[in-house]
Amino acid sequence: MKYHNLEECIVDLEKNGHLIRVQEEVDPHLEMAAIHMKVYEAGGPALLFEKVKGSKFRAVSNLFGTIERSKFIFRDTFESTQDVIAIRNNPMKALKQPFKHLGAGLAAKSALPIKKTGLPPGFQEIQITDLPLIKHWKDDGGAFVTLPQVYSEDPEKPGIMNSNLGMYRVQLTGNEYDINREVGIHYQIHRGIGIHQAKATKLGQPLKVSCFIGGPPAHTISAVMPLPEGMSELTFAGLLSGRHFRYSYVDGYCISHDADFVITGEIYPGETKPEGPFGDHLGYYSLVHPFPVMRVHKVYAKQNAIYPFTVVGRPPQEDTSFGELIHELTGGAIRQEIPGVKEVHAVDAAGVHPLLLAIGSERYTPYQQVKQPAELLTISNRILGTGQLSLAKYLFIAAEEKEPLSTHRIEEFMTYILERIDLRRDIHFQTNTTIDTLDYSGTGLNTGSKVVFAAVGDKQRELCQEVPALLNDLPGYSPARWIMPGIVAIQGGAFTSYSEVEQEMSRLSEAIRERGSLPSCPMIILCDDSEFMSANVNNFLWATFTRSNPSHDIHGLDSRYEHKHWGCDTVIIDARTKPHQAPPLIPDAEVESNIKRVFADGGSLSRIQVRE
């Protein structure tokens, strides 16, 4: 079905059993987010909150909570959109089979934005405080827009086809913001709006920004899509919705005629205010930092507008389903962009950006037996220099072999790597470089390090299937626990300082060395809680890769440098919590108790089985 607006989507979902109306009045201060998380965790439906305390507007969440529901929403446009993206990635497909791809050409043509005049009928001017001011986590700095479509244009080449539409969080209240007059715009590095702001600053002028909220679901998805070079987000929005993106300019600001809400304003050169904290997708709070402040010009709402939102926290959350949808839509885009890449998997359980798993080719010397990674290292550098992939810290990459290998079977893939990697030769660091803005494991905002673990060739070792005996009863450490083949967790004392950890690692290495060698255990995880770390693979992925900075937190048994290259016999990753890291997200017990009313007998959500 091709929706003209968000309400049509909601009606369609409800008709087909994909949405429930929450009829109780619910507080946007923590309660709405807590209800959403319970329903998402239960694999439940989308939610329409009909009575939002303090606002006349309704709100909807969990629209994209499952890949099945997302594909249902886009059931009439999904395949044609995939086809257009595939042709953009590989134009020869259309030349070789023009009639097969004729529909894609027609779909692309019908997706071009259409310009209108004036404000859309029914739009009314409101204030920020009229919106559902949803606060998600107890220590959040205020209310945030979590599904915004932030629009800006290239100041040197203005116009709809030289625009950027991105999902950058928008803080509505709190901190030092002048209520109804200012909002915060938090965008990370490598984002299109940053290029536009840099150009505007160079020209000495403010950057005009429009924040669209709501509209057809395709518009929300378009704001997070990693699109092929030259494909506009607004064209993609038209493709996926099956309907032209309609817009006009009012007071010099772009206005989406399909959005439920529009906030317009300007970002002035060098003007920032403290933004945050905010519960984020790594499972921690992102802390307070100066980010651009937007001076609000006007705020609009359509008649009977509906406010969409999501909740961001430790994966999996609704943005996990976003990722699955994007992967299905883009298909083999990364293979076209980086020659030799067969597969790249940004691991959701590890917070997406901290950990990448990849498969690549080894074609440099087909006349010789491959003895060490070669092309894999070239591919690794390309991966770590491409778009959002460049924010990764850890990249585990293996050569494509005859036997089937998938990065999505994580334990099997990690086992394959650890069976083959030469730890003295095939660990490669990049220090003092950029990482995710939201990742506090590094040495500063956006600053940290990266490491590549590359494996090629025959199996070198058998991996331990239980804790090796010599890791038990280590002085100063709790009993070791087995995580997966070749990986063991040991629990130590609290992290103190990096200088003291260096001494601690020397003592630990010596204590293990005195007991023997560890050929079957190439990786040890030093942690605060080995029971938690070993309870399941997702705990291991989350705690290890969100709490460690490769250059500072990777150590090794019998480590050494040879011509500035570091290697070891067994890798030790210090995944303990560090004092400079952000606190984890913890649900509020009082709120958890309060929301039980909507799940109780007679409540709107009584038929949903939630975990206590």
Written overview of the protein:
This protein is of the alpha+beta class. Mean pLDDT is 91; it is low at 91-106. It contains 19 helices and 30 strands. It is globular and about 80 Å long. The strands form seven sheets. Strands 5, 6, 7, 8, 9, 10, 11, 14 and 17 form a nine-stranded antiparallel sheet that branches. A five-stranded mixed sheet has the order 19-20-21-23-22, sandwiched between helices. The two termini are 37 Å apart. Helices cover 27% and strands 26% of the residues.
The largest β sheet comes out as: 9 strands, antiparallel
Q: Please count the beta strands (DSSP E, at least 2 residues each).
A: 30
Which runs of at least 5 residues are low in confidence (pLDDT < 50)? Answer: 91-106
Shape: globular
Count of discrete alpha- or pi-helical segments spanning 4 or more residues: 19
Distance N to C terminus: 37 Å
Which range does the strand content fall in? 25-35%
- What class do helices, strands and sheet pairing give? alpha+beta
Estimate the mean pLDDT confidence: 91
Share of helix among residues?
Answer: 25-40%
Radius of gyration, CA atoms, in whole angstroms: 25 Å
List the helices and strands and how they pair.
Blueprint: H1 6-15, E1 19-26, H2 31-41, E2 46-52, E3 58-61, H3 67-73, H4 78-89, H5 92-96, H6 102-110, E4 114-115, E5 124-126, E6 144-145, E7 148-153, E8 163-166, E9 169-171, E10 182-186, H7 192-203, E11 207-213, H8 217-222, H9 233-241, E12 246-250, E13 253-256, E14 261-275, E15 278-279, E16 285-286, E17 289-301, E18 306-309, H10 318-330, H11 333-337, E19 341-346, E20 355-360, H12 375-383, E21 394-399, H13 410-420, E22 427-434, E23 447-455, E24 481-484, E25 487-491, H14 498-515, E26 523-527, H15 530-535, H16 537-546, H17 550-553, E27 554-557, E28 560-562, E29 565-567, E30 570-574, H18 589-594, H19 596-599
Parallel strand pairs: 1-2, 3-18, 4-12, 20-21, 21-23, 25-26, 26-30
Antiparallel strand pairs: 2-3, 5-17, 6-9, 7-8, 7-11, 9-10, 10-17, 11-14, 12-13, 14-17, 15-16, 19-20, 22-23, 24-25, 27-30, 28-29
